[in-house]
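Input set for joint prediction.
Command: fold jointly, output tokens.
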Amino acid sequence: MSKAVLMQGNWACVEGALYAGMRFYSGYPITPSTEIAELSAQKLPLYGGKFIQMEDEISGIAAAIGASISGTKSMTATSGPGFSLKQENIGYAAMTEVPLVIVNVMRVGPSTGLPTASSQADIMQARFGSHGDYPIIAVSPNSVTETFTLTVRAFNLAEKYRTPVMFLTDETIGHAREPIVLPKPGELPIYDRVQPADGEEYMPFRVEPGEIVPRMPAYGRGFRYNMSGLFHTETGFPSNSPENAQAQIDRMFAKIYDNVDDIVTYEEFELDDAELVFVTYGSTSRSVIPAIKSLRKQGYKVGMFRAITLWPSPAKQIEALAERVKHIVVAEMNRGQYLQEVARLVKGKVPVTHIGRANSEILLPSEIEALAKEVLS
Amino acid sequence: MHKEIRLTGSGGQGVILMGIILAEAAVEKGLQAIQSQSYGPEARGGASKCEVILSDQPIDFPKVLEPNILVALTQDGANKYAHGLGEDCLAIFDESVEVPENLGTKNVFSYPIIETARITLGKSIVSNIVTLGVFCELTDIYTREELLSAILQRVPKGSEVLNERAFDEGIKLVRRA
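tokens >
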């Protein structure tokens, strides 16, 4: 076995991206995501890739979209204020179905907020931040090691489903250093987008039988096609037809929601006989787990459901929890965002309580333990 | 084995690097470790805090709850973090720091760390490495060689001799006292 090395979460994100095949990064540095840009700038030239620091966050994502259309796996990273700026082009990437990984190392907002402090308050923005109806995939890691593996997975999902993928980490995990054993090449699966063969009769937005998304030839290979943020037909050219708009948006949603079982991942901890379950994600699970260990020692039947894929949400699993537990507590570093999704899924079948804040202080295991005792009493 | 370490000082003093070195030396020994930091938006100055947890078990909660070892190189850091410590907490201060009254522990050591860096070594920038020497000598977590090797892997090329001297001066501060 390879030796463990101490690595920062943001570095593990870049190492994971390179492992997945990232060969282009463009962005604009912002705390607490800057190390992602720094390491990408250092490393990409060594892999034959390109790094560009753009003039702002908007062009940062725009260049990454362009690079992806040219066939290069691309990433951009930012934090709250930059994530807000990127929203228009996130919609563009969703509409044109461009594979892309967008990293948001979340900090406390709104606005410039607390630049060096951790939060998880961009959860709803990640889902609904751009205008219009569009599906999205968002994932959230809870350790340095998972930052690596989940970045690889984010690229795979982007390529497989031709979609922007949100990688929602936070200052706690992004800046933490932990030991990691880096996977060897070939150890983790890598997925590359399906391209048409040379000379193939090709329609830019037609899904071939048995496939999930339209094939995507790299610009420059000789396939001439149009990319547009307007609703477009299979040809790629704009159309005002309501039937076409309906068919295209239905197809875009179906490619994600018909494949939820492939996309959604989660972790269960001490769930078997649990009466109270914490639904949580990302760094906050690191506060929940020690609370559960302590509560279990005292005889309380508590467990944790950690969403690793936040969007689409693990709906089936959360609905099933609502059928068999007595209480659900959503723990997150905000004033109640994922709470809305969990409450929607629970449909009032069991009480749903929330614990969270975004003032730079992460939730303490003792607070979580106290709340559990109060709820169970 | 489970040790929670809190290091405080002023931005630019190398407090965070100190924590990284402690964590790297621990990982090298096969221990689990997590290092985290908190600092303000300033590039230099302002209070800086670095936390390291070392354990032979997987580490869940990433932050220090009750430090076993506290280091404060500035008054600001001491005022903010050096109170209500556990009875057994080892508290290490720079001599320039007035030890807060409500410290909570009697296990207190003060050494002229910054002065040693500035005068004996001629570079205040190595205060953090002098501190690591003090840390190494006062605790039984690392051997001199283990911690020195982690230091030498982290410091800029060409500065190895200075940093090894700084580390040994830190060890001497404890032995002389």
